[in-house]
Design brief:
Elements (H helix, E strand, L loop, with lengths): L4 E6 L3 H10 L5 E7 L3 H11 L3 E3 L2 H5 L6 E4 L6 H10 L3 E4 L7 H14 L3 E3 L2 H4 L1 H11 L6 E9 L19 H17 L4 E8 L5 E9 L5 E7 L8 E5 L2 E5 L8 E6 L5 E4 L11 H12 L10 H18 L10
Parallel strand pairs: 1-2, 1-4, 2-3, 4-5, 5-6, 7-10
Antiparallel strand pairs: 7-11, 8-9, 9-10, 11-12, 12-13, 13-14
Length: about 325
Amino acid sequence: MSRTVRWGVLATGGIAATFTADLQAVPGAEVVAVASRTDTSAKAFAERFGIPKAYGSWAELAADDEVDVVYVATPHSAHREAAALCLEAGKHVLCEKAFTLNSREAEELVALARDRGLFLMEAMWTYCNPVVRRMTSLVADGAIGDIRTVQADFGLAGSFGPDHRLRNPALGGGALLDLGVYPVSFAQLLLGEPDRIQADALLSPEGVDLNTGMLLGWESGATALLSCSVVADTPQTASVTGTRGRIDFPRGFFHPERFVLHREGHDPEEFTAGGAGDGLHGMQFEQAEVMRALLAGETESPLVPLDGSLAVMRTLDAVRDRIGVRYPADDIG
């Protein structure tokens, strides 16, 4: 592979647009193709971003020999289908979160990528954020002692009608996979897969979660109190408390520009990281990590390891089991 990494974008929604805008500012990245289910949508997206090739089918993008890696930006209900199509065609893949609808689908994608020797990564941009990486480094060095609690929430006060995808079980609707994946991933970045999981939720008439609370526990004695919602605008903050101090993230903890370290006997210390507030949306860090790994010949990212993504999906499955949310895809396989 040359030093230029050629990207294809699969899907043309809002997240694809944000991703593409950031990607075009990353040195060494070239967006060469976009695909949608319709020619009209693909051509409009290509014209908007100056992308040379537009395809009205996913298969055409997957077959393009000039594409090195595909960013899958569909709703998560289509992640397995789209990512598998690209992997089977020999393409490396960056797949949006939640990684898939359930852990079985995630395991299938990971097995396929590993069998083909291809790069695959969940687009958990939080893990690649330089501020979050600074936090994990401080925690690893013992800055706050042993972790005892993690708190994180992500809620939006939306007016999502019965026809919206967030209310549709077939599309993986509900707060958990869209928003809850962030608090869960944040907690597991620090503590790994939990040993105990409790959860409660308000469900919609369609059977998806509108408002969910989670309590995770580890054998170490650490706990995580997490929540997500599509009916309440929560603080969207996070805190990590240890035996010797605490780290607080302000609103927008999932793509932060700063955090504050509190330690007994010290004034509060604010940490920032270069490039976290450079006018882009924050996706440039995961994009750079994908490109670094590809140019190094790596098939997994140490920042967003596949085993970690699988562990998060198992937790999300367990939470859905506790609150009584099932998707039609759960009964397949």
